[in-house]
Amino acid sequence: MERRSFLAALGPLALAKDTGDLPHYRVVTQHKPAAQPGMPGAYPGRVIAVHSERSIEAGTNKVDVAVVREMMASGMRELTGDKDSRDSWARFFTPSDVVGIKLNCSGAPNIRSSPEIVAEIVRNLMALGIKPPQIWLYERFPDQVESVHYERYVPAGVHIEAIEKDRRSIAGYDPRTYVEVDFFGEDDTRSNMIRLVTERFTKIVNVPNMKDHGAAGVTGCLKNIAYGNFSNVARSHAGAKTNTLSFIGTLAMVEPLRSKTVLQIMDGLKGVWQGGPFLRDKRYQFYPKQMMFGTDPVAIDRQLLPVIEAERKRQGAISVWERTTDKRKFGSGQYIREPGHIEFAAKLGLGVYDADKIVRKDIKL
After folding, report:
1. How far apart are alpha carbons 254 and 230 in whole angstroms?
2. Domains in the chain, ordered, with CATH?
3. Taking a C-beta distance cutoff of 8 angstroms, is the pair 154, 123 a contact?
4. Using an 8 Å Cβ cutoff, are 101 and 202 in contact?
5. Going along 52-130, which residue ranges are E strands?
6. What is the average pLDDT across 44-67?
7. 20 confidence band (pLDDT: 50, 70, 90)
8. Which tens digit of pLDDT belongs to each residue from 229-263?
9. DSSP string of 150-176?
10. Backbone phi, then psi, for 171, in 5-degree steps?
């Protein structure tokens, strides 16, 4: 898809409001969208939030596996309206699927897609008849993935894959599927999609965390599925400028990633309210003790914003919406944050941003 057709897909509102200072994106892919792309999917604008004080023990970080299982079953049933959670999973997956589970390990080993949650996803996939070799846990960098030891939680045969065996290696990326853009005159202007996504997976489950982000404002479903599935993405920030406003949604729109990402399960057992996406100081860790379920990454990230904002306010930090890099202000950072990337992604067609149009259901266990 060339720039002209891509911008046309934004719609007149986005074109009128947002494209004046946008980078010039060229999206190249041979893959066609599904009849119903996975994002926003079968349940646009619907978010199920499940909270349990028993889910994790603050301080020790001990996760109650039985409670996580109950939270996931309740969330999936409420999302689909089924009485049996197995039927809920069967709406998304069949025994022949090859499923990628997109981890978030950028804050590992402390903040990451909880292995207990990942293991429960794997258990539910296997209950449908999906064999362990058809399931892949994947992330970009090996040191982050290896620090979590997912192999201790999932059955033998489940793949645990780090894409960049060597940092900046492009061997694990598809040379035919990429977004080309020159942000700051960098030498390498292409970001290529992970080859497993284009060549092997038939479905993807996105498992982000609840985190603050110094460039994007927050990092949830959209950033994990976008930046986490392409090479050469850190180049979008330089000086005080970050292009996360438009780059996140642009990447998430690229086929086949958009069509194959059929389920969003946000891990909010623990979170990061400052300094994200990493956790270099444990003072910035907090415990939302919840999970969110849906198919719409925009709607879920829209619900993430007040979670991070409320904790930052409680801690006396500036808002994620404050456009400053003044380091004298507590909580400020290097970049001018762009939490508006969530609304921008909605204008691309990735989901529902308008709070009045989002249907949220809260479950307390």
Report:
1. 10
2. 3-31+44-364 (3.40.50.11440)
3. no
4. no
5. 56-57, 62-63, 99-102
6. 97
7. low
8. 999 999 999 889 999 999 999 999 999 999 999 99
9. GGGTS-TT-EEEES-SSTT--TTEEEE
10. -60, -30
Look at residue 8 and tell me whether its pLDDT is greater than 90: no
DSSP letter, residue 201: -
pLDDT at 326 over 90: no
What DSSP element (H or E) covers 74?
helix 65-80
Helix axis angle for 65-80 and 115-127, nearest 10°, is 60
Residue 59 tokens, joined: 């301080």
Average pLDDT over residues 279-285: 91
Q: Please give the sequence-ordered ranges of beta strands (E in DSSP) within the chain, or none if there are none.
A: 26-28, 46-51, 56-57, 62-63, 99-102, 135-139, 159-162, 173-180, 190-194, 203-206, 209-213, 217-219, 237-238, 241-242, 261-272, 285-286, 290-294, 359-364
Q: Is the CB of residue 268 less than 8 Å from the CB of residue 292?
A: yes
Beta-carbon contacts of 324 under 8 Å, excluding residues fewer than 6 positions away, are 318, 332, 336
Largest CA distance in the chain: 56
For residues 199 and 18, what is the distance between their CA atoms, to the nearest angstrom?
A: 33
Q: How confident is the model at residue 332 (pLDDT cuts 50, 70, 90)?
A: low
Q: Is the separation of the CB atoms in 120 and 114 below 8 Å? A: no
